Amino acid sequence: MAAPDSDPNATPPTGEDAASELHQALSSEALDELDAVLEDVRERSEETPQWEFCDGFLTALVCTRRTVPVTEWLPMLLGSGIEIDDAQPGQPLPLQSDIFKDEAQQARFLELCGLRLNEVATQLDMDTDSLDSDDAFQPECMDMRGAILMLPDEGRAELEGQDIPSFAQVWALGFMFAVENWFEEWAAPRDKEAQKWIDESLEKIVAITEDDAGVPAVNLYDDQGPASTSRERVEQVGEAIWACYDLRQVWKSLGPRVETVRKAHEPGRNDLCPCGSGKKYKKCHGA
């Protein structure tokens, strides 16, 4: 894809040509490899998402207050949703045979996801004043409508009547899928200013889970192609990217959630002892 202009809120290219330039951790070959793994997994589970959804999901994990371990997020993304409970510290994750065909495929998928997680965290932790910067965070957002418009007439006819997602819509759905499944980690903090900051940031991401209802003006798959995306949508995606920076920073500033330890109720000295002895508490365990 190509950015339609140099607006700081515009998204730089996110297609194969741009991947090797802007995503040093994941080359175009690595992205193709991820697509191939997901396609293979899809043969065992039809609900397996596209990489764009996965990238939104992983980005949300980077922005979540608590570091979510792979034993939680992998089955939520690709499996049954049930946490893996037989993993041993310091050992490779046991093969999830309902997801991957073998240990090598699982290890490679996790390796590439780990690279992407580290890359997103590094980018969101860097100071930047423009999304056009080479080191700025760029989500793996697709302009499927733009790509379809570039197909020959026969190819477009085969897809006629299908619901084609808007630019970045699938990515945003992946992000919010993670938020919804770890909602306790996104619970409103006591700091009202931080709460407002989080709510406003999430609203910007939720906005692009909706369909692009604007007038098509640009094609993000090919800047010379037929218009597929509104300029309003491009601006919304830019705002969602800045929202990721804000969410990452606000949770880091608040630190880990502090669990409140509640003191167990202690019986009165003249109450019966809860041990069942029949004696008053002051004559038994309260002595």
UniProtKB/TrEMBL annotation:
Which InterPro entries does the UniProt record give? SEC_C_motif (IPR004027), YgfB-like (IPR011978), YgfB-like_sf (IPR036255)
Question: What Pfam families does the record tag this protein with?
Answer: SEC-C, UPF0149
Q: What is this protein called?
A: UPF0149 family protein
Organism domain of life? Bacteria
**Looking at the record, which segments are called Disordered?**
1-20
Which species is this UniProt entry from?
Diaphorobacter aerolatus
